[in-house]
C-alpha cells in the first residue's frame, strides 16, 4: 500500500507543516503519527515525501527527504459530463478522477433537468471541485483533476471542434468506440449525455458522427469512466 497523499500549495521547505483542513485530516482522521511517511503534492505535478516528525490535533510536520515532479499526461483526456441528478453526480466525478481524466466539464444539456441560476451553479461547481480534489488525493494523483465551469451546448461544440479526437457517445450510433484510434498528443474530448440522452438538436450542433460504447446502455454516471478507460488503455496506459 502506497503512502497517503495530501495537498500543499508550497513545497520548497525542508520541513513542511500540514495544518488547516489537510493537517487535521492527516492527524485526526487518518491518525498519522511520527515516523509514518506521507507525500505532499501541489496538485500540479510536483511532490515531496518524507517522515512525519511531529503531530498534534492541529496537523503534522513532514521532514522532506525526497522530491520529484511528474510531467503532465499526454494526450489530455477531457470528459464533458451532462449534469446528473443527485448522488450520480458525485459518483461520476469520483470515478472520472480515479481513472485519470484530466478535465471534467459539467454540461447543462437540454435533458439534464438542471436549472442554472447563479446560486445553484456556484454550489454545484463547489461540490464537483471538492469531489475531484478528494478523489485525486485518494487515487494518489500528482496532477489533480480539474473541473471547468458549467458549459453550454455551444461551448461543448467548440471543445469538440478543437479536439485531436472528438467523441460523442450515443446509444443509437453504429460506429463502435473501439474503432477509434487515440492520438499521440492533444485533447481527447468525450461527451456524455444525460439520462434522457443527447437531444437531436445537440447532435446537430456538435456536427460529428457519434459512436456507441458497447452492446449495453450505461448510466450517465458510468459511461464516461468506461469510455475514458477504453481509450486510455490504448494510449497513456500502454
UniProtKB/TrEMBL annotation:
Domain named Ribosomal RNA small subunit methyltransferase E methyltransferase: residues: 75-231
Entry's Gene Ontology BP terms: rRNA base methylation
Domain Ribosomal RNA small subunit methyltransferase E PUA-like, first and last residues per copy: 18-64
MF terms (GO), sorted A to Z: rRNA (uridine-N3-)-methyltransferase activity
NCBIfam families: PRK11713.2-3 (NF008693), RsmE family RNA methyltransferase (TIGR00046)
Source organism phylogeny: Bacteria, Bacillati, Actinomycetota, Actinomycetes, Propionibacteriales
UniProt family annotation: Belongs to the RNA methyltransferase RsmE family.
EC number of the protein: 2.1.1.193
Catalytic activity field: uridine(1498) in 16S rRNA + S-adenosyl-L-methionine = N(3)-methyluridine(1498) in 16S rRNA + S-adenosyl-L-homocysteine + H(+)
Native source organism of the sequence: Kribbella speibonae
Protein name: Ribosomal RNA small subunit methyltransferase E
Alphabetized UniProt keyword annotations: Cytoplasm, Methyltransferase, rRNA processing, S-adenosyl-L-methionine, Transferase
Keyword Transferase assigned: yes
Main function: Specifically methylates the N3 position of the uracil ring of uridine 1498 (m3U1498) in 16S rRNA. Acts on the fully assembled 30S ribosomal subunit.
Subcellular location: Cytoplasm
SUPFAM superfamilies registered for this protein in UniProt: alpha/beta knot, PUA domain-like
Listed GO CC annotations: cytoplasm
Amino acid at each position: 500500500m502506497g503512502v497517503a497523499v495530501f495537498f500543499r500549495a508550497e513545497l520548497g521547505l525542508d520541513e513542511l507543516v500540514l495544518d488547516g483542513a489537510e493537517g487535521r485530516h492527516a492527524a485526526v482522521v487518518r491518525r498519522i503519527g511520527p515516523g509514518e511517511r506521507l507525500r505532499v503534492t501541489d496538485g500540479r505535478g510536483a511532490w515531496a515525501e518524507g517522515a512525519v516528525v511531529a503531530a498534534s490535533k492541529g496537523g503534522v510536520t513532514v521532514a522532506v527527504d525526497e522530491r520529484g515532479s511528474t510531467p503532465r499526461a499526454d494526450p489530455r483526456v477531457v470528459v464533458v459530463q451532462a449534469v446528473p441528478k443527485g448522488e450520480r453526480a458525485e459518483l461520476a466525478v469520483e470515478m472520472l478522477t480515479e481513472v485519470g481524466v484530466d478535465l471534467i466539464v459539467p454540461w447543462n444539456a437540454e435533458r439534464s433537468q438542471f436549472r442554472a441560476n447563479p446560486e445553484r451553479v456556484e454550489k454545484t461547481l463547489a461540490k464537483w471541485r471538492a469531489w475531484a480534489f478528494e478523489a485525486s488525493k485518494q487515487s494518489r494523483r500528482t496532477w489533480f483533476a480539474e473541473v471547468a465551469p458549467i458549459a453550454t451546448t455551444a461551448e461543448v461544440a467548440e471543445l469538440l471542434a478543437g479536439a485531436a479526437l472528438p467523441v460523442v457517445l450515443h446509444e443509437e450510433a453504429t460506429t463502435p468506440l473501439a474503432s477509434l484510434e487515440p492520438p499521440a498528443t492533444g485533447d481527447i474530448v468525450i461527451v456524455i449525455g444525460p439520462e434522457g440522452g443527447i437531444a437531436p438538436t445537440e447532435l446537430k450542433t456538435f456536427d460529428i458522427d457519434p459512436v456507441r460504447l458497447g452492446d449495453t446502455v450505461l448510466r450517465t454516471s458510468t459511461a464516461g469512466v468506461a469510455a475514458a478507460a477504453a481509450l486510455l488503455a490504448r494510449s497513456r496506459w500502454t
